[in-house]
């Protein structure tokens, strides 16, 4: 089966063309250019490089989040459109699960992504034939996630993987010292070819949406300035203006 896999959940972007579990082509970008301007040209360039027609793709895989709001919308929307046009299955993979694949050692793995303002998107996994979720995907403050992990795992090595590890390395080392094993930066990127190594699920292209794990900043500000309306609608109200 020919699979087009893509990740747009961080500032970096990755696409891979995979056939029968063999990575035929992978292209990665680490520029500030918007994903919306790069994604389709990157897919086209990868297909041309190995003489694939886009119509020969038999499945689409994409990261569903959490991560960059804009990046996720671009990746998921592109994946949905391609899956519908090509009439092929659409699969999604959690961004943090795809990141966790990079860690090869046994032990609890904590992939995370910077969510700004000293917060992270983070989860915990014990990998194996069946992955065990040790800590659910969530949006955590620095203090909360350090304390949560410390309480749940008082002994043993802890493995951390993130393209943003340098932002939190000092706090991690101060908390756990030699117990903390932080994967090297060059091994900590979300690579599209890793998507098929993580747990994945099939999606309905008509209703599939990203998993953001937190509100967008504009939504947070709106809710903060309209507490009565939010409370009246059980915390999920956003006013429509037609």
UniProtKB/TrEMBL annotation:
Transmembrane segments: none
Keywords linked to the UniProt accession: Transferase
Native source organism of the sequence: Aerococcus christensenii
GO molecular function, one term: transferase activity
This protein's name: tRNA (Adenosine(37)-N6)-threonylcarbamoyltransferase complex dimerization subunit type 1 TsaB
Pfam families xrefs: TsaD (PF00814)
GO biological process: tRNA threonylcarbamoyladenosine modification
GO cellular component labels: cytosol
The encoding gene: tsaB
